[in-house]
User: Which sequence fits this backbone?
């Protein structure tokens, strides 16, 4: 109830700001995504959506028939590590799997993005591998207000992949050989974020970057 003689002013809603993350394998994009989104933001992770799709019975059956039962675990679920080895060693197998999963992933990302914007989520972060390489198909890079390149030295990313994922030395470079060079990704980004320190240092770097972006980029109308 308003007080006589005073008019209640409604806050003007602000448009969502969409961030896209670029960087190499094991650069820590998921961690950065969570920090950029913050408690009131939304991370749209293609990897999480792909994981959901790979648990659907119809997709499991299709994958087992195409690539053999060895890509399933003892519970009959897709073993993502085993499947990853198959598709990275066989280009045709990779194209086949992508033909099944990518349309569904793109549709869910677009739906989640539209819903988050409609709800006025302040920071929306797209954690999508090959964001630039596949932009002609999904247009997600073009939908981003800010592209952030996550900079981590090659040797540190290789160390992380060995420790966290059990990869062999040099596997990061091998997988990145078919992708856009990191120099091109960094050149396409609006901002570069250093991410090879501690989590506390990364958190501070993200806070500094977001403060800079807010200062230099005026809020958009919704």
Assistant:
């Amino acid at each position: 109830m308003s007080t006589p003689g005073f008019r209640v002013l409604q806050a003007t809603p602000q448009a969502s700001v969409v961030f896209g993350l670029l960087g190499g394998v094991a650069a820590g994009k998921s961690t950065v995504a969570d920090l950029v989104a913050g408690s009131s933001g939304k991370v749209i992770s293609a990897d999480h959506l792909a994981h959901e799709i790979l648990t659907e019975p119809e997709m499991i059956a299709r994958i087992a028939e195409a690539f053999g039962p060895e890509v399933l675990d003892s519970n009959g679920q897709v073993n993502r590590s085993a499947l990853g080895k198959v598709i990275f060693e066989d280009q045709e197998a990779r194209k086949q799997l992508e033909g099944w999963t990518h349309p569904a992933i793109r549709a869910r990302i677009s739906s989640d993005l539209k819903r988050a914007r409609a709800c006025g989520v302040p920071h929306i972060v797209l954690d999508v591998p090959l964001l630039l390489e596949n932009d002609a198909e999904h247009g997600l890079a073009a939908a981003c207000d800010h592209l952030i390149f996550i900079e981590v030295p090659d040797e540190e990313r290789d160390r992380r992949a060995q420790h966290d994922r059990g990869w062999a030395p040099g596997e990061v470079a091998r997988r990145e050989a078919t992708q856009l060079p990191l120099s091109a990704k960094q050149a396409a980004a609006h901002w570069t974020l250093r991410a090879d320190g501690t989590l506390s240092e990364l958190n501070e770097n993200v806070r500094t970057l977001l403060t800079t972006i807010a200062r230099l980029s005026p809020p958009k109308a919704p």
In short: Residues 1-12 have pLDDT under 50 and may be disordered. The chain is about 50% helix and 10% strand. Residues 91-118 form the longest helix (28 residues). The domain at 17-41+122-222 is CATH 3.40.50.300 (Rossmann fold).
